[in-house]
């Protein structure tokens, strides 16, 4: 199906359409099923599900971090795509053998879009990662990262040793606070950098970039003297913010013109918080691949960087503790 139909508007970010005012509006994820321990359609089972991700994508690396924190490596295998997202979208190593990228072990797909068409031959949305795949039904369970990390947080606890089953990034007593923080961080920071970077007019850019830095100022105050955003423990609020902040100086500052201040010089509390997570927690460090990050943004987003020249800075990608 994908070979006889023009899908470039779905797969080629260089042909991405903006709103009439030049602003970027992110499309909603299309697959929103849930894995439950006793669900009849998508029950929690060992080695039934497969996770497709990109190291470059902040949304996908949310799921990598959570998978590692929960000790799900032997329960949910993972496949990494190449950062060279071109006219056909995310490629696998079979067509773009980039260091650290994998061949699709299930179907030897050439691109992530092949999986979407396997799940739905008439699929009309974008071919995004992460993809949580069901190997029994040959379909996408979910491609919304915020929901996938909550599934990973609790759905497989019965299969895990106690020290991993008790890891809880969305504890009941903090859920209201986590949801409140997530709401404005998503709008102005996680998605805010994209709204600034993809803006097609000066007005749309400024309407995104100033709220972004207002929220960073707010986060700086929240993290001053603290190791975590909510409560005194690691939660999904930290995971969701980390994946944006760790990309800020390498790509968002210059590539997306989020250049009022960088993190390492402008936000000492945020910088300390980010470095602490990266250097002291293997789940964060192993899920961060700066080569994939920089190559993807500078090479793939030709509307923003038509020369595809990849920036060599900053040095280092992240400062030592």
Task: Write structural notes for this entry.
This protein has 321 residues and is mainly alpha-helical. It has two domains: 160 residues, Glutaredoxin (3-Layer(aba) Sandwich); 110 residues, Glutathione S-transferase Yfyf (Class Pi), Chain A, domain 2. 41% of the residues lie in helices and 5% in strands. The protein has 13 helices and four strands. The chain has a four-stranded mixed beta sheet with strand order 2-1-3-4, with helices on both faces. Helix 2 links the parallel strand 1 and strand 2. Helix 2 runs parallel beside helix 4 and helix 6 runs parallel beside helix 9. The longest helix is centred in the middle third of the chain and has 22 residues. The mean pLDDT is 95.
